[in-house]
Design goal:
- The protein is an alpha/beta fold.
- It has one domain (about 5-270): TIM Barrel, CATH 3.20.20.70.
- About 45% of the residues lie in helices and about 15% in strands.
- It contains 12 helices and 8 strands.
- Strands 1-2-3-4-5-6-7-8 form an 8-stranded parallel beta barrel, surrounded by 8 helices.
- Helix 2 packs across helix 4 (about 80-90), helix 6 (about 115-125) runs parallel beside helix 7 and helix 10 (about 220-225) packs parallel to helix 12 (about 255-270).
- The two termini are about 25 Å apart.
């Protein structure tokens, strides 16, 4: 494929000047539907370079308990795919620069229709889409639909990904690829940073776009460790825990403040890292 990457995503990675990008993941509608745009704005001001916005789904096979529970809370509040697109559109009324990537599963998209979804997402101001259960073999037509609406297809790679799979994704992926640094679900296990480094180097032999690393980044220290080899770090479960606890302790509206403060510390930690790859 020859389509160019999404303008906002390209601009972010081009402007980093050697710093590793910070990509927080939050679930749309958690802790409140009404406060999700405010939360996104707060995260952007705290240093988020890209925001991954989770689309709530009833059977999230790649998500650990923390993100599953966030999705359940959002679903209980009635949040569906159309609501997620409305959230992005509202966010765009004030922020036209920060890229937003939707992360979710095939069922909601299939229910809306791939073409209708791509068009609606483009109109709302989405920049990229990561569908966990769309394989590359199933994504050629969908990728074209996304490109027609100016959206980047984001794909996952895992420790078990083969050289052939990486080469295959090189022809489809745009924006960045998301390397899952652990086997299992989000929020699980302990990081082996040297193992992550080796896998990222393998990926770069096949894929020229930025490599983001997620699953298992819990704090500033682990973010710094991975920033030495990754183009971006993705933080989800740890941030959602902060949001959940602040909601319990101080009320849902205060969760925005707590999340921004926590992410700001991560951003500061990343700004201190000198990457050792070109």
């Amino acid at each position: 494929m020859s389509q160019a990457s999404n303008i906002r995503l390209s601009a972010v990675f081009q402007a980093l000047s050697g710093r590793t990008a910070l990509i927080p993941y939050i679930t749309a509608g958690d802790p409140l539907v009404s406060s999700t745009p405010d939360l996104m704005h707060a995260l952007a001001k705290a240093g988020a370079d890209v925001i991954e916005l989770g689309v709530p789904f009833s059977d999230p096979m790649a998500d650990g308990p923390v993100i599953q529970q966030a999705g359940e809370r959002a679903i209980a509040a009635g949040v569906g795919l159309k609501d997620v697109l409305d959230i992005v559109a509202e966010f765009r009324t004030q922020d036209t620069d920060t890229p937003v990537v939707l992360m979710g599963y095939a069922n909601p998209i299939e229910s809306m229709g791939q073409a209708a979804f791509a068009q609606a997402a483009g109109r709302a101001g989405v920049d990229g889409v990561l569908v966990v259960d769309y394989t590359p073999e199933e994504s050629v037509d969908f990728t074209r639909l996304l490109a027609d609406s100016g959206l980047d297809p984001i794909f996952l790679l895992a420790p078990t990904s083969t050289e052939a799979r990486m080469a295959q994704l090189a022809g489809l992926a745009r924006g960045y690829v998301y390397y899952v640094s652990l086997k299992g679900v989000t929020g699980a296990g302990n990081l082996d940073t040297e193992d992550v480094r080796r896998h990222v180097e393998r990926i770069r032999h096949h894929i020229s776009i930025p490599v983001g690393v997620g699953f298992g980044i819990r704090d500033a220290q682990s973010a710094q460790q991975l920033a030495q080899c990754a183009d971006a770090v993705v933080i989800g479960s740890a941030l959602i825990k902060v949001i959940e606890q602040a909601s319990i302790d101080h009320g849902k509206e205060q969760a925005v403040i707590a999340a921004a403060r926590w992410l700001g510390d991560i951003h500061q930690a990343l700004s201190e890292v000198k990457k050792d790859h070109s």
